[in-house]
C-alpha cells in the first residue's frame, strides 16, 4: 500500500513528504498512511498502524521521524499535524475525526 494523498496534483513539498512516508511504509506494510495540505503552509499526516499498540507516543514519533528527519528543514516545518494511532484509537479520537472532516483553513 502506498501513501494516500488527497490531491490529484501534489505540490513539491507534499511529494517530498510522501516520498519519506513511502520509505516508512516499506518497512511497516500494515500501516495506513494519508496526508493532505490543509493550507499553503500546513500539511497534515495520519498513520494508523497496529504496530503502535503498546508503544508510547514518544516511541511512535521516534519511529516515524526517523524517516521524516531526512526532509529539508523547510519541508519538515510544514508538517503541522502528525496523528499516530492504532485502529482502536482512531475510532474514538477527536483529532482523527477532524482529519476525516477538517474545518476549512482561512489561509
Describe the structure.
- With 107 residues, the chain is α/β, with parallel strands linked by helices.
- The chain has a single domain (4-100), classed as BolA-like (GMP Synthetase, Chain A, domain 3, 2-Layer Sandwich), CATH 3.30.300.90.
- It contains five helices and four strands; from the N terminus they run βαββααβαα.
- The protein has a four-stranded mixed sheet, sandwiched between helices.
Distance between the termini: 32 Å
Supply the number of structural domains. Answer: 1
Query: What value does the Rg take, in angstroms?
Result: 13 Å
Mean model confidence by pLDDT: 93
Strand order of the largest sheet: 1-2-3-4
Q: Estimate the global geometry from the Cα principal axes.
A: globular
Total E-strand runs:
4
CATH C-level category: Alpha Beta
Architecture per CATH nomenclature, i.e. the level-2 architecture: 2-Layer Sandwich
The helicity comes to 40-55%
Question: What name is given to the CATH topology?
Answer: GMP Synthetase, Chain A, domain 3
Could you state the order of secondary-structure elements as H and E? EHEEHHEHH
- Uncertain residue ranges: none
Summing up helix and strand content along with how strands pair, one would put the structural category as alpha/beta
* Binned strand content: 15-25%
Descriptive keywords:
107 residues; alpha/beta; GMP Synthetase, Chain A, domain 3; 4-stranded mixed β-sheet; 5 helices; 4 strands; 42% helix
Amino acid at each position: 500500500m502506498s501513501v494516500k494523498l488527497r490531491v490529484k496534483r501534489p505540490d513539491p513539498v507534499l511529494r517530498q513528504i510522501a516520498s519519506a512516508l513511502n520509505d516508512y511504509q516499506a518497512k511497516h506494510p500494515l500501516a495506513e498512511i494519508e496526508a493532505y495540505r490543509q493550507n499553503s503552509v500546513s500539511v497534515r499526516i495520519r498513520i494508523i498502524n497496529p504496530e503502535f499498540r503498546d508503544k508510547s507516543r514518544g516511541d511512535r514519533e521516534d519511529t516515524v521521524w526517523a524517516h521524516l528527519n531526512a526532509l529539508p528543514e523547510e519541508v519538515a516545518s510544514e508538517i503541522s499535524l502528525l496523528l499516530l494511532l492504532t485502529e482502536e484509537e482512531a475510532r474514538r479520537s477527536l483529532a482523527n475525526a477532524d482529519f476525516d472532516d477538517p474545518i476549512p483553513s482561512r489561509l
